[in-house]
């Protein structure tokens, strides 16, 4: 029998493209949340005083919604396995100045990718529960169990909790 965990190493992600901020400013927030649990990440992002927190908050929330809706994962057991920020295109404009001259304005953008992984998938002992079943049968049984899990996650509202700061 091959490795039955092969089917369960599923990662769920959310991708935000052309977010209007520099990649350097977004990276200092992403470095704080990489490897943390989902609920802890939401609390950190609500309390950090940076402008980059809000788009990252929305992406983490979206990735968790993808995980619970599409895969049936429990949001309380999600962990941020990867978080990366890449530079996007730079929008260039000209600002009019005195005496008919112009001054270039550069608006950098970035692409943020948040990858979540479910840690509850590795808690099962397959030798006791599913002895004698094939890999596909085990995966189907486990997937049905994931769909019926109760989502015991508290709702985080960024506007009403007083956690939205706008500092650069």
From TrEMBL:
The cross-references to InterPro entries, in alphabetical order and at most eight, read:
Ribosomal_uL22, Ribosomal_uL22_bac/chlpt-type, Ribosomal_uL22_bac/org-type, Ribosomal_uL22_CS, Ribosomal_uL22_sf
Q: Where in the cell is it found?
A: Plastid
Mention any one GO cellular component term assigned to this protein in its UniProt record. large ribosomal subunit
Pfam families, sorted: Ribosomal_L22
Q: Has the keyword Lyase been applied to this entry?
A: no
* GO MF term list: rRNA binding; structural constituent of ribosome
- Please give the PROSITE patterns that the UniProt record associates with this protein: RIBOSOMAL_L22 (PS00464)
GO terms in the biological process aspect are:
translation
Query: Which keywords does this Swiss-Prot/TrEMBL entry list?
Result: Plastid, Ribonucleoprotein, Ribosomal protein, RNA-binding, rRNA-binding
Identify the PANTHER family for this entry: CHLOROPLAST 50S RIBOSOMAL PROTEIN L22-RELATED, LARGE RIBOSOMAL SUBUNIT PROTEIN UL22M
Q: How does it assemble?
A: Part of the 50S ribosomal subunit.
Similarity remark: Belongs to the universal ribosomal protein uL22 family.
Query: Which NCBIfam families does the entry mention?
Result: rplV_bact (TIGR01044)
What is the role of the protein in this entry? This protein binds specifically to 23S rRNA.
What name does this protein carry? Large ribosomal subunit protein uL22c
Q: Which organism is it from?
A: Pleurophora pulchra
The taxonomy runs:
Eukaryota, Viridiplantae, Streptophyta, Embryophyta, Tracheophyta
């Amino acid at each position: 029998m091959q490795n039955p965990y092969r089917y369960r190493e599923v990662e769920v992600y959310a991708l935000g493209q052309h977010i209007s901020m520099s990649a350097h400013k977004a990276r200092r927030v992403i470095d704080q949340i990489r490897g943390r649990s989902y609920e802890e990440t939401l609390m950190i992002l609500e309390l950090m005083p940076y402008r980059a927190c809000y788009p990252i908050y929305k992406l983490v929330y979206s990735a968790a919604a993808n995980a619970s809706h599409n895969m049936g994962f429990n949001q309380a057991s999600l962990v941020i396995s990867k978080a990366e920020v890449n530079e996007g295109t730079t929008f260039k404009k000209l600002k009019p100045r005195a005496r008919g001259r112009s001054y270039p304005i550069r608006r950098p953008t970035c692409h943020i990718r948040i990858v979540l992984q479910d840690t509850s998938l590795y808690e099962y002992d397959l030798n006791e529960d599913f002895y004698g079943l094939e890999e596909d049968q085990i995966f189907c049984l486990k997937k049905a169990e994931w769909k019926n899990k109760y989502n015991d996650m508290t709702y985080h509202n960024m506007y009403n909790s007083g956690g939205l700061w706008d500092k650069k």
